[in-house]
Amino acid sequence: MDKTHKCDKSDKCAEKRDLIIQAALELVAEQGFHGAPMAMIAEKAGVGAGTIYRYFENKDDLIRWIYKNVEERFVEVMMQGYPEHGPVRERLVHIGTALVRHLINEPLQLRFVEQFHNSPYGVDHRREKIFGQQKKDIISELFHEAVAQQIFKPLELAILFSLFFGPLVDICRDHILGFIKLDDALIEQVVGACWDALRR
Amino acid sequence: MDKTHKCDKSDKCAEKRDLIIQAALELVAEQGFHGAPMAMIAEKAGVGAGTIYRYFENKDDLIRWIYKNVEERFVEVMMQGYPEHGPVRERLVHIGTALVRHLINEPLQLRFVEQFHNSPYGVDHRREKIFGQQKKDIISELFHEAVAQQIFKPLELAILFSLFFGPLVDICRDHILGFIKLDDALIEQVVGACWDALRR
DNA sequence: TCCTACGGAATGACCGTTCATTCCCTTATA
DNA sequence: TATAAGGGAATGAACGGTCATTCCGTAGGA
């Protein structure tokens, strides 16, 4: 929930807000929640400690706001250029490739989301995602359709998601941490391998 | 590193030590590191707060000790009844199935390890694992052999591990949290799917 | 009596949050 | 234009609480 604030439009206030967000994103991504106390976020953003509370109710509010925005950007990226009427494999490869490309270009966003998922809210968030999955997002639809057409193995959505997205996120982390070196050819191979896991 | 202690052998002291370990394991697994302060661990173990420091140098020492032991148990379980001279697929299915069965029987151990991996030490530990991978554990050997025989896709070990173990651990967590319900048939299907991801 | 294990209050560091104060920009007035 | 007043934005020292760790008095066995 945003805190009501006099100047929402693109003026100095918005700039300051963005500075806080960026500082928090970086610190949490690089040091974890432990390594991102409010005082440090404020210092990195170049504002006073109290100023943060003019823009966000409390730390939870700040963290959740960042998470929501980062997640939305993930979906946007996967939907950009999505071949809506192409065959299932093409659509899936598009999603996987777009996701991996984005994650390795925005390592802070990946690390932040991972930190978030492994925290008290993380479980609640996943529960909501899985059980509240009545809303028809395009990716869930694609998976459902592929199961119905007997292209995918007849498994629950949660399992199919783990088979496909789990390894992709893992290798992005390994790339960011310098354990492996991803390039376009390798990304294609790994996405292909994840496809193989899903295929009937 | 254990702290030197007069009575190491199976007497009352060892019992008390185990109580501390069990309490810490449960609290960290269920509440995360934040929710497992030393005072709470002591209370749950039924000992004084200071007593913990007679058995472990500090909290880090305690946590690392538990992690090391839990991880060793994972390997033990995967190696129990390992069909060393069977075909690659049989050996891999054995490992995957044994791991999943163990993890869903010991949810605390899985949750603890996940908490550990997402913490400051987590990255260091993984770095050590990947770059210090000169030691020939049986599982790495199996993967190397399968690549050499062109049974697996020609990918780095870290990637193959992510493709195989990543989804397996994910679905165990989902099972523990009640999001899905694993049974023997389903485990077999999922392990089979992970095999498909690796297969050339 | 000596020595070791133990408990739990005490300690000091640190964290999120608050709030009295200051700063600065806008507006009103002459 | 010059000046004063008003008010929202920003600040950072201070507060209350929590944490890991230490310290010291006590109990019990040799």
UniProtKB/TrEMBL annotation, chains A, B:
The keyword Phosphoprotein does not apply. It holds the Pfam family TetR_HI_0893_C. Residues 37-56 bind DNA. Keywords: DNA-binding. It comes from the Bacteria. PANTHER family: HTH-TYPE TRANSCRIPTIONAL REGULATOR RUTR (PTHR30055), HTH-TYPE TRANSCRIPTIONAL REPRESSOR FATR (PTHR30055:SF207). This is TetR family transcriptional regulator. It comes from Geomonas paludis.
